[in-house]
Structure to design on (236 residues):
């Protein structure tokens, strides 16, 4: 891996067996990375980075101004989120050989887990529960919008993403959703689903794409603002 400096900004450069150059700005502090094709020389990469300097600064400022969750220790009565609501964490030790599980109560998320489980084990259990809940929610949302939009989603997946709420693999008609969406209100999850499905009608964020969004989900801008106001996950 190489590094170049553009103004006051350090840029990591990785060469990969890819066709196009990719620029990304990563949370929490706005680390900049360029993935470039093997054939591209450093001078060309530097010119590309200079041309994107204003965009890089805007993305860094956006990340630095985001309201982020505090680091989680997974201790009793710690606050956690699910579908836009706040719950207190409850830890209940399991009996020997009993499987770990999670129960959602009126105001608590109760982790049934072995007594000596560390924070990482509790985090994994909670994340898998979040994944399961999203998997239960998404098929109905996708089916609803397939009918309204006249498109077909062949499959969907859920994974942790540092810089995006979702992505769409257009050739495979597959959408990916950020695991963090399990913490957000259902209407915000629906906005991201519609956004990614709209890419099956229009690849880029151009006026045609915006026209589709206005047609299918007229309040999408309000939902986008709400989603951006909510705290995003902690990044160490």
């Amino acid at each position: 891996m190489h590094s170049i400096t553009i103004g006051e900004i350090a840029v990591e450069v990785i060469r990969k067996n890819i066709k196009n150059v990719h620029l990304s700005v990563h949370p929490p502090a706005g680390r900049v990375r360029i993935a470039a094709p093997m054939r591209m020389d450093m001078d060309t990469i530097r010119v590309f980075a200079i041309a994107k300097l204003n965009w890089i600064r805007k993305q860094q400022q956006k990340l630095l101004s985001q309201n982020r969750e505090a680091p989680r220790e997974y201790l009793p009565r710690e606050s956690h989120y699910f579908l836009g609501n706040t719950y207190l964490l409850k830890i209940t030790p399991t009996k020997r050989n009993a499987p770990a599980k999670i129960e959602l109560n009126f105001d608590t998320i109760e982790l049934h887990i072995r007594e000596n489980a560390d924070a990482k084990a509790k985090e994994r259990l909670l994340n898998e529960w979040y994944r399961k809940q999203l998997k239960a929610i998404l098929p109905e949302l996708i089916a609803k919008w397939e009918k309204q939009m006249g498109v077909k989603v062949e499959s969907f997946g859920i994974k942790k993403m540092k810089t995006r709420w979702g992505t769409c693999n257009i050739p495979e008609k597959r959408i990916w959703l950020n695991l963090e969406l399990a913490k957000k209100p259902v209407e915000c999850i629906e906005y991201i689903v519609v956004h990614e499905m709209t890419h099956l009608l229009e690849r880029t964020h151009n006026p045609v794409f915006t026209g589709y969004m206005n047609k299918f989900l007229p309040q999408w801008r309000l939902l986008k603002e709400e989603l951006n106001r909510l705290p995003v996950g902690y990044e160490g």
